[in-house]
Every structure is written in structure tokens, then in C-alpha cells.
Amino acid sequence: MDQAVSRLLSRHEDALRHYGELLASYKGRIRLTGPTDPEILWKEHILDCLASVPLLPSEGKIIDVGSGGGLPGLVWALCRPDLEVVLLDSVRKKCGALAALAADLGLANVAVAWSRAEDYARTNREVFDLAGCRALASAGILLEYLSPLVRTGGTILAFKGPSWHDEAAPLEGKWARLRLSAPRLIPCERDEKKLFFVLWKKTAPCPASFPRKTGEAEKSFWWR
Fold this sequence. Notes:
Elements: H1 2-24, H2 38-52, E1 61-65, H3 73-79, E2 84-89, H4 92-104, E3 110-114, H5 117-123, E4 128-134, H6 139-146, E5 150-160, H7 164-168, E6 184-190, E7 193-201, H8 216-219
Helix pairs in contact: 1-2, 1-3, 2-3
């Protein structure tokens, strides 16, 4: 995978650096991400997202849930112009910023959606080949958000840090309740930073009881 990422970087570094500069320039207008220094954004965020690109499907439609400043969705769109990429966020101002960023980057393969994940899944149920997120929620909650969006045979992709094993422990043996396989972990280590890409396969249509009403995922856990 390292060689694949190196090839992607050689092809897309200029565009990705431009994206980082645009993202940093939103300082003072709307908070899209934590750091606002382009070099920190590059090292701590954009390169992490770039490392996930080889895990994307060979074709189809993908969604970044809780996109914020477009991490990872805009990185995906820049590196894979052959994929349809939806950036979903529940904050209207962030969606406006995402649309402006996509336009500035000349990305014709991006659509921006302003909605809660639960509401969006009711009208876009199981239409995506991959649903992904970065820093959205703990594992159990994010799976309830993402499973209704992904078609059978598709993939859920989450970015997780060293606390992954603690998050996963209560869910062991219960993945099938959301019609998901057991997770596959792919470690990604850079500059002493340890990151996991966690992937689940969708094994069957999600039960009709999901998604539940807005906010229910955080109040009543499906795995208990």
C-alpha cells in the first residue's frame, strides 16, 4: 500500500497542497478543522486521508459522513475523479464551505448534502459502494449511521486511533445485527503516529428498524 500511496502523491501533490491552503484560508470565517497551519494540515490530516485512497472501490458512489472540511472526502475526490463522492454534514455553513472548496478545486465529481446521517439514509438507503468517516463518533454509533447507507457487498471505512480496541470490545460478536462482517484492521504508521483503517463488509440489507430517529443512536445503544 505504501507504493500505491507514493504513486498517488506524485500525481496529486500539487492539487492536495492547494486544497490544504484553501482549507487553512477559512480561518476566521468558519471552523472547518482544528489546525489552520497548512503544513500541519498536510502532515496530520491530508496525508492520513491520502493513505486511505487505495482502499476505495474500483468504481461507483461513495460518501464521507460528517465531512467537516472535506477530510477525507475531498482528498478522495481529488485522487479518484472516476468516483462519485458525496460530502454529508449536518452544519449548513460547513456545507456551503465544502461546496465552495469543491468549486475552487474544479471537482465535478462532488455533491454536498446538508443533513443528519439518519435523515439522509431514509431517502438514500443502501445506494453507496462505500461509506466512510473520520473523527465522527465511537465505533458502535458510527456503524448505526453508516450501515443503512451502504449496499449489500459494499464497505464501511473508519479512521481509528490507538483506542480502537477499547471501542470494539463491547461490539465483538454483534456486528451481524447491522448486517456487517467482523472488522478488518489495516495499520497505518507515520512519524510515530499510529492509525488504523477499519473496514466492514455489508453482508445483507440493513434491518428496517435502522436508521432510528434522530439522536437515538447516542442514547440507546443497539449492541446492548
